[in-house]
Write a structure and sequence with these properties.
This protein is an alpha+beta fold and about 475 residues long. It has 15 helices and twelve strands. The chain is about 50% helix and about 20% strand. The strands form two sheets. Strands 6, 7, 8, 9, 10, 11 and 12 form a seven-stranded mixed β-sheet that branches. Strands 2-1-5-4-3 form a five-stranded antiparallel β-sheet. Helix 4 runs antiparallel to helix 5, helix 5 crosses helix 9 and helix 12 packs antiparallel against helix 13.
């Protein structure tokens, strides 16, 4: 037991400074940490001892000499104070004062926060450096993308001029390839620039009044040819309650839809792609519009969904090699949707397709679209789906050997060999990917034939392709050997 009946052992080795003083402010106890930090060493003489001094010697800014009540009278709150050492240097502490009414004394517990404040300053400095680096990065990206766009557009302009002139077939094909590559490069540049602006917080929407249905028709026109060319079905349904005119950033809504539809097309070999548009809320001149883009493609495993909306992220490292892409598209879509007051989500099962849905808020001009036309479109879409046997046909077509699978395989093999005969190797690879998926559950010998055909197509070896195609077709449809499709 110590002075005044204080048990010193539990607090003597405590990690915080502990001081006990009476109602007159006289310190009656100080633990080892307090003595060491305040410079009152154990070997010091009585005139240098901490015990017996007034609390105002330690906290001169908070107490006055001979004061009978502490600064935090009747309170156990924690406050930031300044404590003084014996040599009159000081440092900040986080102090708590507790009154022991029964013993008519006060207990002070204080932690040195000098390191904490120093660390906070360092953290703030690091944050400022990061902000500065972000600004430099944004300026660099903006300058680089501008510099890249200039030569790309120069190449594109010259190529288009050459394409207007009479050319040999192989020259025209080469120029068309260059034109397409320039277009792809511009899309990548646009994505990088948008991402940089969004990350820097410098991106702003440009809302204006536009015809909503015309915007959807424009989106449909951009994708319908490529979708049907791949042998897929495309359905667009619009709720009749959707306003005819809305106020929003038409360009960015189109950008989001283009990205989602392009992804659906990229990862779907068999089945259909659907775009549904619904009105889900109307509040004080604002309308919430809900979009659903669904496909019957390769799907996404549940554990991989959290990677989808991260920048520069692919679900699988092999995705970028097989399908291309920078991993920025969905991240940009997410940020654009959130700027429009909405959210984006995905539902998917591996091997069974995906469904991306997002909502945005737009200005409601109070004009509904033509209900009859919208209803007719919906009815036509569902009639077509019923004739196709959706969704039963989608599930059946994935099982090798079923009637639906055989029909789809035959159709895609015919398109594949036609593309080869026309020396359109890009389309041939597209149809080959569909064939590969249609034969994924085939017997091992059929799968090996499909793999050899794919390798021959990638090499552009016409003779090898013809041999491997004949072998795959004859073994897949032995009853039609005599009816092998010709060039």
């Amino acid at each position: 037991m110590g002075e005044n009946g204080i048990s010193v052992f539990p607090v003597e080795d405590a990690l915080e400074m502990i001081l006990i003083f009476d109602s007159t402010g006289r310190i009656t106890y100080a633990n080892a940490v307090a003595r060491n930090k305040l410079g009152y060493m154990p070997e010091a003489g009585a005139e240098e001892s901490l015990v017996g001094r007034h609390i105002s010697d330690v906290f001169p800014g908070s107490f006055k000499p001979m004061e009978t009540a502490p600064y935090f009278q009747g309170s156990s709150e924690t406050g930031h104070l300044v404590v003084y050492r014996r040599n009159r240097t000081c440092f900040p502490v986080e102090a708590k004062f507790v009154q022991d009414s029964g013993q008519n004394r006060w207990i002070c517990m204080a932690n040195d926060i000098l390191e904490k404040e120093h660390l906070a300053r360092e953290i703030e400095q690091v944050r400022e450096e990061a902000r500065q680096a972000g600004r430099v990065k944004s300026e660099f990206v903006a300058n680089v993308t501008h510099e890249l766009r200039t030569p790309v557009n120069g190449i594109l302009g010259n190529v288009r001029e050459l394409l207007d002139e009479p050319l040999e077939e192989h020259t025209a094909k080469a120029l068309q390839l260059i034109e397409r590559c320039c277009g792809d490069m511009n899309k990548i540049i646009d994505n990088i620039l948008d991402f940089s602006k969004l990350e820097a917080g410098k991106f702003s929407l440009e809302p204006r009044k536009f015809h909503f249905r015309n915007m959807l028709d424009y989106v449909k026109a951009q994708h319908i040819n490529r979708i049907t060319e791949k042998g897929l079905d495309f359905f667009l349904t619009v709720s009749p309650q959707v306003p005819e005119y809305v106020v929003g950033d038409e360009l960015r809504i189109v950008q989001i839809l283009n990205n989602l539809l392009s992804n659906a097309l990229k990862f779907t070999a068999v089945g259909k792609i659907t775009l549904q548009v619904l009105l889900t809320a109307r509040v004080e001149g604002k309308a919430e519009i809900f979009f659903i883009v669904s496909d019957t493609g390769i799907g996404i495993a549940e554990e991989d969904r959290d990677k989808l909306f991260k920048s520069f992220s692919q679900v699988d490292a092999s995705i970028s090699r097989r399908y291309g892409g920078t991993g920025l598209g969905l991240n940009i879509c997410k940020q654009l949707v959130e700027l429009m007051g909405g959210s984006i989500d995905v539902e998917s099962r591996q091997g069974q397709g995906s469904r991306f849905s997002f909502s945005i808020w737009v200005g409601d001009c109070g004009e509904k679209s033509n209900s009859q036309n919208a209803t007719d479109d919906i009815k036509a879409a569902f009639d077509s789906m019923a004739q196709m046997g959706v969704p039963e046909a989608e599930e059946d077509v994935r099982h090798y050997g079923t009637a639906a699978s055989r029909e789809a395989l035959k159709k895609n093999l015919s398109k594949l060999i036609l593309s080869v005969e026309m020396e359109n190797w890009e389309k041939a690879e597209m149809f080959m990917e569909t064939v590969r998926q249609l034969t994924a559950q085939a017997p091992p010998d059929i799968k090996r034939m499909a793999l050899r055909l794919k390798m021959a197509i990638q090499k552009g070896d016409y003779e090898k392709v013809t041999v491997e195609f004949d072998a795959l077709y004859k073994n897949s449809f032995p009853e039609e050997e005599a009816g092998l499709p010709g060039p």
